[in-house]
């Protein structure tokens, strides 16, 4: 077994669920030893490759391997010092490199940080290495990562040593980052496609997380009943699934086909796709021959709101959307087998009176779906997960559901 430390993205709850669902799908035995808003410590079988995992998971920033575990009695770090001295941290790096030390403990331990800083400084000096420390920037009382993910992905292992420290159950754990996600790869899938519609798209990052939340093993068929220009289906294909989409708007449906053909060619994928230019409120009629194993979708979320609406207007929008979603859930109930997952986003609108108006759970419950939480024990009542980003003013509620 090996212990790995996962640095979580902006939405730690979603990242944790994505991680658990993906590992469960691949039938990888794992144990969550600890997790916080910033990082998760997991025990996993030896064969698991961090570089492959980090490529698959869009909610994980980087993965570090625990190299040292030492008892910490108060601020006596002698055991840690002894264990550290037996490890060649600069292996694979040249004579000149950058390094960072991140602290993922729940409570900051100044003494431990100072000890580690002194220890590595002295050591690299003795080894005649030109190691330059990058220290995390302080941003309004909060610490920012010491190196931008883009840069880390480029430099890791060649000119950058990224270390992390975590205090866990009376021990100090020291980890070395072995894989980092590359935000440029995601950006390419967002903006280098033949057709890009910023006002419409689900980001590649969110799309990948949603697909992973479905927890499907490779080679299954995923349906997006509101597929737009295909962001979710693209991620489904990239993770080894067959893609089926429904899009009512003809122009979007054809853009979706263009984008998915591009994706298939560019990434040399074996997975295929089929797009129906139809209304998903009637999907059981035209999807008869398709054996759909999971549904992943960011549906139509209502009109673009320039300013906060009144409560009356918000209730009107939500009522209309609820009617649409309920019809689609009724249709999905007809084509999905028991145990099939549906990952579905629904809006929650903030009103000018300071209220929040959202879709009621009856919309899916009446049609035989219930919330599914891959981490019921560790994070009870985690579903729905709220998702808000800079670009989008609407709060989106992420539901993972299962057909009863
Ligand atoms: C939020 S967008 C989906 C974005 C998509 N995930 C992407 O990244 O391109 C919702 C899409 O649903 C489509 N739509 C709305 N009502 C529909 C319906 N009843 N049946 C099928 N598609 C519908 C809209 O035309 C729009 O393209």
TrEMBL record:
SUPFAM superfamilies: S-adenosyl-L-methionine-dependent methyltransferases. Residues 203-312 form the Ribosomal RNA large subunit methyltransferase K/L-like methyltransferase domain. It holds the Pfam family UPF0020. One of its GO terms (molecular function) is tRNA (guanine) methyltransferase activity. GO terms for biological process: tRNA methylation. This is Ribosomal RNA large subunit methyltransferase K/L-like methyltransferase domain-containing protein. It comes from Candidatus Iainarchaeum sp.
């Amino acid at each position: 077994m090996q212990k790995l430390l996962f640095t979580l993205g902006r939405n730690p709850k979603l990242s944790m669920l994505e991680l658990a669902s993906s590992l469960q799908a691949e039938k990888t035995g794992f144990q969550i030893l600890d997790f916080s808003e910033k990082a998760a410590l997991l025990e996993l079988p030896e064969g698991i490759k961090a570089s492959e995992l980090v490529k698959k998971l869009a909610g994980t920033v980087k993965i570090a391997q625990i190299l040292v575990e030492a008892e910490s009695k108060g601020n006596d770090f002698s055991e840690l010092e002894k264990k550290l001295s037996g490890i060649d941290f600069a292996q694979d790096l040249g004579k000149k490199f950058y390094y960072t030390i991140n602290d993922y403990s729940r409570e900051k331990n100044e003494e431990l940080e100072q000890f580690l800083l002194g220890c590595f400084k002295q050591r690299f000096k003795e080894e005649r290495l030109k190691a330059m420390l990058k220290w995390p920037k302080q941003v309004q009382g909060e610490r920012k990562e010491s190196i931008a993910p883009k840069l880390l992905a480029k430099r890791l292992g060649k000119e950058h040593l990224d270390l992390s420290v975590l205090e866990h159950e009376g021990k100090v754990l020291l980890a070395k980052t072995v894989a980092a996600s590359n935000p440029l790869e995601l950006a390419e899938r967002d903006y280098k496609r033949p057709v890009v519609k910023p006002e419409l798209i689900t980001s590649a990052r969110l799309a990948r997380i949603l697909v992973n939340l479905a927890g499907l093993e490779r080679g299954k068929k995923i349906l997006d009943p509101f597929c737009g220009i295909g962001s979710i289906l693209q991620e489904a294909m990239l993770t080894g699934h067959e893609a089926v989409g429904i899009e009512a708007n003809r122009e979007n449906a054809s853009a979706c086909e263009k984008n998915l053909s591009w994706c298939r060619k560019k990434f040399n994928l074996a997975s295929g796709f089929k797009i129906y230019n139809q209304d998903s409120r009637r999907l059981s009629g035209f999807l008869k021959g398709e054996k759909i194993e999971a549904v992943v979708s960011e549906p139509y979320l209502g009109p673009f709101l320039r300013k906060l609406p009144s409560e009356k207007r918000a209730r009107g929008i939500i009522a209309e959307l609820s009617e649409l979603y309920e019809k689609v859930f009724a249709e999905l109930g007809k084509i999905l087998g028991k145990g099939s997952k549906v990952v579905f986003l629904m809006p929650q609108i903030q009103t000018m009176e300071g209220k929040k108006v959202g879709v009621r759970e009856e919309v899916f419950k009446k049609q035989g779906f219930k919330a599914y939480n891959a981490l019921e024990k560790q994070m009870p009542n985690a579903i729905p997960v709220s998702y808000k980003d800079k670009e989008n003013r609407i709060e989106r509620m992420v539901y993972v559901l299962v057909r009863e």
